[in-house]
Write a structure and sequence with these properties.
Blueprint: H1 2-27, H2 44-53, H3 60-72, H4 88-123, H5 128-142, H6 145-159, H7 175-201, H8 204-211, H9 216-233, H10 236-245, H11 248-253, H12 259-269, H13 272-300
Helix pairs in contact: 1-13, 4-5, 4-7, 4-10, 5-7, 6-7, 7-9, 9-13, 10-13, 12-13
Length: 313
């Protein structure tokens, strides 16, 4: 397992390097007007001096080298447009806590509702909970997220009298964005847990346990749920990290001052340093989630091996 982890970690770092290099290079192909808020009022000498001070007149390999040198020293540069001359890490640090708290809360809701729903669907196959859960999953899967997010905002703010805009100081304003953010994961966990539990229920060892007179609740708890949950564990870190990183649409819809809305803002303003930093964070989150998922699945069930007898994966 240690050898596999080291190999995957090396592959992850290479992947992250390729992603950041491509994004960095593409950002340098953008028009230079985006680096200035008052481009039309500047003469050529002022523009050239500003670009030189930002290091944008250096050859691309030199710019890339300087970027990685700063990155290894823990610096992602300063914001160019969003908050001029303010360190990127300082801006992200002020935005991240809201996204983290909201992401953790939505994941807790998703687990508390999704897992029991999936279990109920598996136990009452073709019954009420199975039909109810299937209808919910089909709705969430078939309807674009932007549509049902908007429906939740429009109707529940009216029916329940909840605020339409987010305020960190008002706990009630957290309800709608947090619940909206959890809907996709609730459907995902319920759907896959039901599928894995139904597969387990049809296996021979379950039939044998029933033939021996083992209690149905004991079978569901100690065998079916436990074995069905193992393959789901692989995807929990990824969904958790992505949720914590912030939802672009949810944060924009409710004016949440988190990282998701920040990404939209800096892309629109062409703040290259901010875009590069956020792409780096989101890429690292996705790659780390996949790696942690494999490790966690192995810890849940040591019988799982990612290495073949010959030493290959």
């Amino acid at each position: 397992m240690l050898k596999y982890t080291a190999k995957r970690l090396a592959q992850s770092l290479i992947t992250l390097f390729i992603i950041i290099t491509i994004v960095f290079s593409l950002m340098r192909l953008m028009p230079i007007e985006g680096y200035f808020q008052n481009f039309d009022k500047l003469d050529k000498n002022q523009i050239r001096t500003a670009l030189q001070s930002m290091g944008l007149l250096d050859p691309l390999p030199v710019q890339l080298k300087n970027f990685y040198i700063r990155l290894f020293h823990g610096s992602l540069g300063n914001s160019l447009i969003y908050r001029p001359n303010v360190p990127v890490m300082e801006i992200i640090a002020s935005k991240a806590p809201v996204s983290v708290y909201m992401g953790l809360a939505s994941m807790a809701i998703a687990l508390l509702l999704g897992l029991p729903l999936g279990t109920a669907m598996a136990r009452s196959k073709s019954g009420f909970w199975d039909k109810f859960g299937t209808a919910f999953i089909v709705f969430v899967t078939a309807v674009p997220a932007a549509v049902y997010y908007l429906l939740v905002q429009l109707y529940f703010t009216d029916w329940l009298g909840l605020p339409i805009l987010f305020s960190a100081a008002n706990p009630v304003s957290w309800i709608l964005p947090t619940v909206s953010l959890s809907l996709g994961n609730i459907a995902y966990y319920a759907m896959w847990l039901r599928r894995y539990m139904v597969d387990e229920l049809n296996k021979d060892y379950i039939r044998l346990a029933r033939a021996k007179g083992v209690d149905s609740k004991s079978i569901m708890k100690n065998h079916v749920f436990r074995n069905a949950f193992v393959p789901m564990v692989q995807y929990l870190p990824t969904s958790l990290l992505y949720t914590i990183a912030g939802s672009i649409y949810i944060e924009s819809l409710y004016s949440v001052p988190g990282m998701g809305g920040l990404l939209v803002n800096v892309i629109q303003r062409q703040d290259n340093n901010m875009v590069q930093a956020l792409v780096l964070i989101y890429s690292a989150v996705g790659i780390a989630g996949l790696l942690l998922g494999d490790i966690l699945m192995n810890l849940m069930d040591p019988r799982i091996s990612f290495v073949k007898k010959g030493g290959a994966r």
